Amino acid sequence: MQQITWDDFEKVELRIGTILEALEFPEARKPAFKLKVDFGGLGVKTSSAQITKHYTLKELPGKQIVGVVNFPKKQIGKFMSEFLVTGFADENGDIVLTAVDKKVPNGSKLI
């Protein structure tokens, strides 16, 4: 495992946001949803996430998730991703979202 410095870690903006909307993403190469997430003072940002095995479109709005908000925007087909959704692969390689167990203000930074 490669080690990083504290300065390296401080460069990564891991922030909490609340999913406002989740939509189908039929153009994606692998099954995915489009997410619109409120990051408080950082604004509302969009991304896609390959989370279709563990989540439904109906259950995602209102869920707080952790995202990396300081990557450059990335074009995914006709869709522009503005942050990286974080998660962990389960035993089958399907993604489980990184989340908090208590509500915190949108935009809060992981410290």
TrEMBL record:
<keyword id="KW-0820">tRNA-binding</keyword>
<dbReference type="InterPro" id="IPR012340">
    <property type="entry name" value="NA-bd_OB-fold"/>
</dbReference>
<protein>
    <submittedName>
        <fullName>tRNA-binding protein</fullName>
    </submittedName>
</protein>
<dbReference type="InterPro" id="IPR051270">
    <property type="entry name" value="Tyrosine-tRNA_ligase_regulator"/>
</dbReference>
<keyword id="KW-0694">RNA-binding</keyword>
<dbReference type="InterPro" id="IPR008231">
    <property type="entry name" value="CsaA"/>
</dbReference>
<dbReference type="GO" id="GO:0000049">
    <property type="term" value="F:tRNA binding"/>
</dbReference>
<dbReference type="InterPro" id="IPR002547">
    <property type="entry name" value="tRNA-bd_dom"/>
</dbReference>
<feature type="domain" description="TRNA-binding">
    <location>
        <begin position="8"/>
        <end position="111"/>
    </location>
</feature>
<dbReference type="Pfam" id="PF01588">
    <property type="entry name" value="tRNA_bind"/>
</dbReference>
